[in-house]
Write a structure and sequence with these properties.
Length: about 200
């Protein structure tokens, strides 16, 4: 992330560029850019204006109806898909290997005893996955995990589908051939954390 930030003018710009690249059919108001990227409003406005000036994104005025029926026009922003080198920029900023190799194990170090972490979806460039992250362990702190996921979403620029299960529940779902869990472990994925216990349990089924 640091290298990309230097190359593209700061972490705030990288986050916002990823937001538009990964949601190339969506339009965002400034407040949505702020909440999705977790960049301050001042910096979001600054980066949006800079991206507008260089033609990376476009602006459109849309009409919104207020609570009292009053209509007002507000600006929304969307990716300029005809921007020069857009494919090369996408390959660089949304490279799954860069996202995968950052420091995922370290980020989840304080969330409990994680026995198995599987990544799929956006992290391996697959659009067939049921979830981007599966975390299995004991005494997992789901509120902290949720905060970490939100941080990842702001960096990646896209909402993540994730599943958090205690070890016993995971084993139960494996025994019951739960479709969600089975799909995650049968479709392409990569194990980021694996203490061997649950993998052995899976292999016996």
């Amino acid at each position: 992330m640091e290298t990309l930030a230097k190359l593209f003018g700061g972490q705030a710009r990288v986050k916002i560029m990823r937001l538009f690249l990964l949601n190339n059919e969506s339009m965002f108001e400034l407040e949505e850019v702020v909440s999705r990227s977790r960049v301050t409003k001042v910096n979001s406005r600054k980066e949006v204006n800079a991206l507008l000036a260089m033609g990376f994104i476009k602006q459109k005025m849309v009409t919104h109806e207020g609570s009292r029926g009053a209509k007002k026009k507000v600006p929304v922003y969307h990716l300029n898909t005809l921007f020069p080198y857009i494919d090369s920029i996408r390959d660089l900023l949304v490279d799954p290997s860069l996202l995968l190799r950052e420091d995922l194990p370290a980020r989840f170090k304080q969330v409990g005893k994680v026995k198995l972490m599987i990544v799929s979806g956006i992290f391996i460039g697959s659009d067939k996955s049921r979830a981007d992250i599966l975390i299995v362990g004991d005494k997992l702190k789901k509120n902290i995990i949720q905060q970490i996921i939100k941080g990842l979403e702001s960096e990646i620029g896209k909402e993540l589908n994730y599943v958090v299960l205690e070890s016993d529940e995971f084993k139960y779902r494996i025994d019951m051939y739960d479709k969600l869990v089975c799909d995650i472990i049968e479709l392409p994925h990569e194990k980021i954390i694996d203490n061997g216990q649950l993998s052995t349990y899976i292999s016996k089924k």
